[in-house]
Amino acid sequence: MGDFFFGLTEWLRTTFLLDWAFWIETTGFNKVLVTNFWGVPIAQVLHIIGIGAAFAATLMLTLRISNMAGMSRSVPEVSARYMPWIWWGLLWIIASGMLMLWAEPVRNMINGVFWVKMILLLVTVFITLAFQKSVRSAATVGGAGWNAGGGTKMTAWLIVILWCLIMAHGRWIAYAPV
Amino acid sequence: MASYYPEPTNIWESIEYSSLGTSIAESLWAFPTLETIHVIALVTVFGTILVMDLRLLGLAGNKWTVLQMSKDTLPWTWAGFVLAAITGTLLFTSKASTYMVNPYFLWKMGLLALAGLNMAYFHFVTYKTVTEWDSSPVMPGGAKFAATASLVLWLGVVFCGRAIGFTLGIYY
Question: A Pfam family this protein belongs to (chain B) (predicted)?
Answer without folding.
Answer: DUF6644
